[in-house]
Amino acid sequence: MFWRMGYLRRNEGRMADIKEKILNKFKEVFGEGEAQAFFAPGRVNLIGEHTDYNGGHVFPCALTIGTYAVARKRDDRKLRFFSMNFEHLGIIESGLDDLKPRRDAGWTNYPKGIFWALGEKGYEVNQGIDLLLFGNIPNGSGLSSSASVEVVTGYILSELFGLGISNQDLALIGQYSENNFNGVNCGIMDQFAIAMGQKGQAIFLDTADLSYEYAPVQLEGAKIVIACSNKKRGLGDSKYNERREECETALGEIQQGMDINTLGDLNEEQFEQVKMAVKDEDRRKRAKHAVYENQRTIKAVKALKENDITSFGKLMNESHVSLRDDYEVTGKELDTLVEEAWKVDGVIGSRMTGAGFGGCTVSIVKDEAVDTFIDKVGTAYKSKIGYAADFYVVEIGSGPCHL
Ligand code: GLA
User: Fold this and answer.
1) Rg (CA), the chain
2) Which position among 52, 130, 190, 326 bears the catalytic label?
3) Is 190 labeled as catalytic in the residue annotation?
4) Which among 31, 203, 289, 395 is least surrounded, fewest beta carbons within 10 Å?
């Protein structure tokens, strides 16, 4: 695990090396000729989980790890994809006249979905491309590797075909594709965090109207540490869509007696007054999480602005408890990582991040405690779960770019 951390630190300073590596690989796979290199980040959410499809607030940031890509236009309508993360699959071919999701198309359903979504939104892409990807986001970790692929593809197409799409629209196109092409009813958080990321800043986004503000994350003397449970999850086969439906039903029940648009319109007191309108107890717990988590996010950003990292950390911890007990999306792997983290001196806050059911936790850890944190949490995790977790000390990076 120490090796992994060192690997990441070195990697961050190596964008130029990676660029050379991917350009060489592109030539080897697709042949000589001009080609351009691009990058889009992954993301981590600091607080505000499962609020983005409930009209609430989120507080994610882009990372310096992400998806690297090399692309060039073709003269025909073929799409040829190659991933350095799945080299054994070789080139996967498709075409502009075959933009349908297919199980055997594997990861290429994500870039294909963007071609499809652009067409649906009225953008003209009449030539195919050769596209090579290389991601250094751990796969299935919940750091949004798929949204990163969607955003980098949209960015590339906008650049290559002069479509002039704004970064915010790239996020919306990515989400549209994920919802309608890949069948995952996700909210806007991941694509927005990736497309709109700014170095050193988290994004305080109100998903009800997409208004947002950047908030600098200056953790004097502390680091953001991501612990990856190595329990793989895919949104499609998780209970994600089920949770979303539960919240929609709860909203419908509350709306019978109250004029609100989303659960994010309620504060805690209002929710307590109307909660019995939600008939089923589990569903009531889901709605409670959505309401309380939104309010926690607003409070957390206020605390951060006041430089009160201790309160920020406490709200992160409360967020995890709510996701564990009321929303029930954690599981023993994420609970072990977080509960072990809480025992370590110097941990300011720790919680699961992303959809849950596996994936990662995010912790704010004092500089001097980082090594002990990794050692203690790593050892306890291995002995309880039976396999190792990986740890990443991360930095907040910026949105998509040309390399
Ligand atoms: C996934 C989804 C997001 C969001 C989170 C949970 O990452 O893609 O839209 O709902 O889960 O906060």
Assistant:
1) 21
2) 190
3) yes
4) 31
